[in-house]
Amino acid sequence: MPIPTMDKACLAPPGHVRFLDNRREVPGKRKIFPVVVTAKRFEAIMGRSRMDKKHAAAAQKEEDERYMKYLQEGSDWLCKHFTNVGAQSLDEEKQAKLDQELREGEIRAKQVKMEDDLNRKKRIIRANRILEDLKAGQRALHHAVVESQVVHERQYNEAVNREIAEDARREIARQDAICPETLIPFSTITEEEVKAEEAARAIRVREEFLKDLAERRERKLAQEEQELCDTLIERAQYQCLYEKEKKEQAERKAKKREFCRRAYRDALKEKARIREYERIREQINDRVICVDVTRRRNLDKRYNVEYKKAIAAKIKERAKVAQELGEMMRENECREKAYQTELVDRYQAEVEMDEGRRQCEKDELARQRRAYEREDRLQAEARRQREAQIHRFEVAERFKNMETNRRFYASEKRKRDQATANLRKVLFGQRDEFLARRMAEKMRVSSCQADPYIKDDVIFFDDAAKAVVEAYEEGKIMYPMAKAAEIYRRQNQIGHVPEGRMVGRSKLRDYCWPGYHSKADLAYKNYEAREQCRQELDTERQKILDNCITITKLASKERPYQKCEMECPQKCFQYRGMPAIQSMDSFDSPSNFMCEEEPVTQGGPCPANIEVMTSCDEKEAQTRPKNFNNPPPVCVARVPSVQSADQKTLSRLASEYKPPPEPDCKDAKQKAPLRKRVWR
User: Fold this and answer.
1) Are 449 and 680 in contact (CB under 8 A)?
2) Quick one: pLDDT at residue 164?
3) pTM
4) 448, 442, 450: which is closest to 518 by C-alpha?
């Protein structure tokens, strides 16, 4: 028989119904079961019966309407006291504020764009300046400026060192003047005594040296013997240590073997003990299992006996209860018949009472319904009026929004029209600018054939003039900058460009052919552009000339020109590998050969080489390109036949020749890149 469990809630009878009379089996009464609800649900049922939510919503709505009316009256009362406020509405103020913000935003955007354009132009100018500085002329000028700075610093350091040396020399001279040198004899010993003393000192030194040498040899032998003895002792010590360590190692090995042997025996004992423990535990478990099986068997046997006894007792009790129940049922049937008769009578009375009470409740409910319908009609009327007012407000708001939208669309249309006009103006301006630029390009290509390198030349000579002026003001040397400017001038043939002629407008006109006016206007503009281009070129060339004059003047102040006293005409009476010709009676120069004369140093001999060049025309000499690889021919005055001229006449002609005060291009060691110059 299974043991009954007490953890099932369905088996326990409810505790709140055992004391109720209607649950008891009373003869002649029905079983009435109660309905159990929570307090919250009961309150909800009662609230729905009284329509509490509807009444609360109506009261809240009425309160909101009263509060809005109060606010409207207060607003009207306040607006009456502010008479100086314009008729501008809140939407118009917002629109005006929005327009003002848009205008300020456009102004800020224009300012930002102008600043960006300015910064972009500055960056372009800086980049162009960097590219300009990377050119050969600018790099040569920068090298000249650095060289001038280095020379200035070197001269300053040399001057400081000279001043320091002069101060030291003056100090030494002053010390010498204060304390002059005098010869003071050390003693009265003669030279023979000194020599004898030196010989004796040498003998003593030799003896001491030999003695020291013998002592060192003895010390070395003793040291070797000591080292040998120490080596033998150390070897014996190491041998003893080795034997001792070997013995200790053997002892350690024996101890280790003994330890392992004992550990093995202990392990065997431990395993035997564990096996014995396992055997005892198995026996105990077997005994426990046997006892448990015996206990279970005895308990089951006892349970079966008790269960059979309980079943027999329950059967006897049920038979007894069935007998008592049969007698009770017969008594109950008699009692039930009497109770049914009583219930029918009571039911008839209760039905009559319920009919009267139901009629009263119907009358009361009808009265309440009519009151509710009247209240609903009043609320519907109020709601209709409120909806009509809201509709009127919405219509007014819609009209106001339509007016606002119309103004907004008008403002947007004005903005679009303004933007379109601005864009049209910009596009027309760009078109006009493009046409003007194309016209200027046509005129520049067709008529204004300017020098493409004139801007670079102007920038270079401006920088060179500034560098020379700064060097002159700071006391630095100006020769490197002047030399770089002269090399740049000679390499790029500045100053050899023929002067442009003034351009005049043609007076020939032809009124018969179509398109005369446009062609005539174009020709007139072409004339004007060509004249303007010529004037600009003249201005830039004049600026270059002024800078060249400034550089030359300042450089001449630093190194004034000195006239060379020539001993003989340069390169005229010498030949490579042969001495100078003393007699020139048999020398006759052809009429088509000229000699080049160049300035020589003061008091120097004539060069050992000779260069005989063909005479050239001045115009051809000006128009031929110059460079260092192809030296230009120098046009000099024709010298009469030296067959009829003596040495005095040649010297006079050589002394009358004045070379130009220009730095010699042979000083330039670097070869500058050539560039093609177009003459217009």
Assistant:
1) yes
2) 93
3) 0.35
4) 442
Determine the angle formed by the axes of helices 516-558 and 191-446, rounding to 10 degrees: 170
Between 510 and 220, residue with greater pLDDT: 220
Predicted confidence at residue 590, as pLDDT, reads 41
Contacts of 653 (CB under 8 A, 6+ apart): 569, 639
Burial of 28 (0-12, 13-18, 19+ CB in 10 A): middle
Q: With helix as H, strand as E and coil as C, how does 182-240 read?
A: CCCCCCCCCHHHHHHHHHHHHHHHHHHHHHHHHHHHHHHHHHHHHHHHHHHHHHHHHHH
Give the separation between CA 625 and CA 631, rounded to whole angstroms.
9
578 DSSP β-pair partners: 575
Comparison of pLDDT for 589 and 37, the residue scoring more: 37
Residue type, 651: S
Averaged pLDDT for residues 308-314: 89
d(CA 375, CA 59): 13
Please give the backbone phi and psi of residue 398, each rounded to the nearest 5 degrees, phi first.
-65, -45
Q: How many CA atoms lie within 13 A of 550 on its CB side?
A: 19
Distance CA 375, CA 383 (A): 12
**C-beta separation of 453 from 675 below 8 A:** yes
Asked whether the beta carbons of 569 and 546 are under 8 A apart, the reply is no
Query: Residue 166 pLDDT more than 90?
Result: yes
Q: In which residue are the tokens 């007792």 written? A: 313
